[in-house]
Design a protein that fits this description.
Blueprint (H helix, E strand, L loop, with lengths): L8 H17 L8 H12 L1 E5 L3 E9 L8 H5 L3 E9 L4 E12 L8 H11 L6 E4 L2 E2 L2 E2 L2 E4 H6 L6 E2 H9 L9 H6 L8 E7 L3 E4 L1
Length: 208
Amino acid sequence: MRHWFNFPLHVRNEVKRHINNAIERTDPRRYNQESQYITSLLAKLEGELYEDDIYKIQIIATVMDDRGKKSAESIWGADFAITADIMDNYKNLRIIKAILFQAKMSTSDLKSKKLKQQIIKMKKLTKSPKVLIVNPVGNNRYPYVCSGNKVLIGSKYTKEKLAEYFTKRILTTFDGDTRKSFVDVVQNSGLPQIHLSIIDKRDFYKFV
């Protein structure tokens, strides 16, 4: 993947500030369970992380339906998607990418059979799903991201704090799926437009 963007330090710092502020404002005492915490955190993360005459960085979060055997999470394994809309007017560049995530409460959950099954389901839709670990430490939460592919095969993975992950992997557009069909479908929490038949290895499942 080409390295499209190289944002100046003040832009990266503002993005980190926005993300860390969202984490600090998500009080774990009010959102004790994983699903509650993630929903609240994503609501605070969403929006314009930075904008000036040259750069614009917007994040859209979609929390997938998770109730019942036919819910989006049950079928496709994802808890949520993050879509990044990144613009550099100086270079006349705009990239829109989306990433699927499965969230877990602690590091011990990375070894669970259920998580590996969820990663396999997500990989039917996108090549590089991610895992977000909420990571409770005392009364605080320190979320970090790791590669779903590496967790799946039992390989050594890197733990990236959420703010660092955004600036190193999302802003640079190293991570994320640019297929318009995929980006469009993950804007709906029910993932209703996915046709359950494989068309080829490049497109995975057909988005209709």
